[in-house]
Write a structure and sequence with these properties.
597 residues, mainly alpha, six-stranded mixed sheet, two-stranded antiparallel sheet, globular
Length: 597
């Protein structure tokens, strides 16, 4: 393709992004949206699809500056997709941990809690700065902070592959794989205000710094005292990850320690090997381990989490196997299956994982065309997956949520290795068919995986989990309900515990497992008793406040198809003498339930 034609094509791609963002901005969310995909205007998705198609084509077919522009085009498009809750003016997004993070940030802003007293204040501090400097709301500051922490993932995945010396094709393929956002699995890692997931997106910066430290040994880049700038970057990114979420910092420590272990074994086993030319990472292992250890031992919450993991390992039938079995039964009840859900959520990740696994096997069998030094970097990362996988196995038995968080970290490493693996695959295909043919086949397969990945980067009814869009009506409804509720009367939700909203509205000092300064507890109504019309017996107190949002109704009646709660029972509240509607707007209702009307 002629250079002028390429330039025009790339210009069209960037113009498509701009128009897509403008179209989304011109159509803000005016009510609760169960899916950001169906809520955004179709023209936005058409323009984003055009931009991504151009980005994939130019990234695969071009080299040099134009490939860089193609990578930038794709990364910008994916960033725009991730930013849709911000672009479309969501009040907030997230019904679980996100509301607790909102409460912590509110405490920092109001001076109730200093940042250094938080377990991991990274995201909250970013949102606080955006609030005071940019004048945005605290909720919007957190959503923007989520995007800020995501961008390094798209930047440093291709840079890490480039630092491994693998060639421009591998760099482009790594970039395309990063656009799938494989670390997000929507079981324990999410695209939202979720610090464990947010920390994942910083890990490629550590990998880049580590590879660059090992490969670029020139003294011209040394800082005073002979310190490598990449060593400084390893420590700085490690510290930032620690402040965003410590679990991923521990995984980074395991990664660097595994590299040190491989180096030690190489020096003990070989007399001539490329690894022997690499500077050791022993100091990095000790430094990162010491940093994490000092922080962890001084933090009571970490010690409690470790105790919880041990008790989970010793408990009976609480592991991921039991949880998967329960979810499989529920999916069958609403007309779906684990197989269908797997295809929607994990097919792209499974394909990439399989390709990387076969590639690593080929490297170990000596069947790849990589040079010796690049093979060393592949071996570093591949062998690091052994202890990381062992940690997954431990979590899988004890705490299923932690296990799927570990999968998220593993897929950061697999995303980086995928660039090298796919480049080798394209090279093999080129010997069977032509190079343009190999590029076309690769573009089609990656394009399909890219669509799957981006279709599930946010939760939606497609994966039987409605979007957690928090609207102004929901927030104001809970504010009124919490402010005007009678003392010592508990709040109960329909499959959702209302205490999270108390966190987000009033901050954590007045929350925890209680409402309004600890005067009343919270919980959920018993599904079977409530569905039978026994409203007073659905909660173990003589009186309680029953709260329902549009999200609750969508989840229980539309997505779960009345699996737990029956819509007729909910509608019967309006004629129940023991139930009085005390707060109501378009997306929130609160009933006072009393056994003595």
């Amino acid at each position: 393709m002629r250079r002028s034609t390429l330039d025009v094509t790339l210009t069209i791609g960037f113009l498509a992004i701009a128009l897509g963002v403008l179209a989304a901005r011109a159509n803000p969310a005016t009510a609760y949206e169960s899916s950001v995909y169906t809520g955004s205007p179709p023209i936005t998705w058409a323009l984003f699809a055009l931009a991504l198609a151009i980005a994939v084509a130019t990234t695969l077919s071009c080299r040099g500056r134009r490939q860089g522009l193609g990578i930038g085009l794709g990364a910008t498009t994916v960033t725009a997709i991730v930013s849709l809750p911000v672009i479309r003016n969501y009040r907030f997004a997230g019904m679980g941990d996100a509301l607790t993070h909102l409460g912590w940030t509110r405490d920092i802003v109001t001076g109730g809690t200093p940042p250094h007293e938080l377990f991991y204040p990274g995201l909250h501090t970013i949102a606080t700065v955006l609030h005071f400097v940019g004048g945005v709301s605290i909720e919007r500051g957190l959503l923007i902070g989520m995007v800020v922490l995501f961008v390094p993932f798209l930047v440093f995945v291709p840079l890490a592959v480039r630092a491994m010396g693998t060639g421009e094709l591998a760099v482009g393929l790594a970039a395309i794989t990063s656009w799938m956002v494989l670390p997000v699995n929507n079981i324990a890692t999410f695209m939202g205000v979720h610090t464990n997931s947010n920390a994942l997106f910083l890990v490629p910066a550590v990998v880049f710094a580590l590879v660059a430290y090992l490969r670029r040994r020139s003294t011209r880049e040394r800082l005073p005292l002979g310190l490598s700038p990449f060593t400084v970057l390893v420590y700085l990114t490690g510290l930032v990850i620690l402040l965003v979420h410590p679990q991923q910092m521990f995984n980074v420590f395991i990664l660097v320690a595994a590299v040190s272990g491989v180096q030690f074994l190489a020096r003990w086993r070989f007399d001539d090997h490329p690894m022997l030319e690499h500077p050791t990472t022993y100091a990095h292992t000790i430094g990162l381990g010491g940093l994490f250890g000092l922080w962890a031992l001084s933090n009571e919450r970490f010690r409690n989490a470790a105790a919880g993991l041990v008790s989970g390992l010793l408990a009976q039938d609480i592991g991921a196997g039991a949880e998967v079995g329960q979810r499989g039964s529920s999916l069958t009840d609403i007309g779906s299956s684990l197989t269908e859900l797997f295809v929607k959520m994990f097919l792209d990740a499974a394909i990439v994982g399989l390709i990387v696994g076969l590639f690593v096997l080929a490297v170990w069998l000596g069947r790849s065309s990589l040079d010796a030094e690049t093979r060393s970097f592949v071996n570093y990362l591949a062998l690091a997956l052994v202890p990381l996988g062992a940690m997954f196995a431990v979590y899988f038995v004890g705490t299923p949520t932690m296990a799927f968080r570990q999968v998220g970290f593993i897929y950061v490493i697999l995303t980086i290795l995928a660039g090298v693996a796919l480049a080798q695959l394209v090279g093999g295909l080129s010997s069977v068919i032509t190079r343009p043919g190999a590029n076309a086949v690769t573009a089609l397969v990656l394009g399909a995986c890219l669509v799957l990945g981006l279709m599930t980067v946010f939760v939606s009814p497609m994966i039987y989990n409605p979007g957690q869009h928090v609207t102004p009506e929901m927030m104001s409804g809970y504010e009124d309900g919490l402010d005007h509720g009678a003392e010592d009367v508990p709040y109960a939700g329909m499959g959702y515990d209302p205490y999270r909203y108390d966190h987000g509205i009033n901050g954590i000092p007045g929350g925890g497992g209680n409402i309004g300064g600890g005067s009343a507890t919270t919980g959920t109504v018993n599904a079977s008793v409530f569905s039978a019309g026994n409203y007073t017996g659905a909660y173990p107190t003589d009186e309680y406040y029953f709260t329902v949002t549009e999200w609750d109704r969508t989840k229980e009646f539309d997505v779960y198809d009345e699996l737990n709660y029956h819509e007729a029972a909910y509608e019967g509240l309006d004629t129940e003498p023991n139930a009085n509607k005390v707060v109501s707007n378009d997306e929130f209702e609160m009933y006072a339930i009393d056994s003595e009307p």
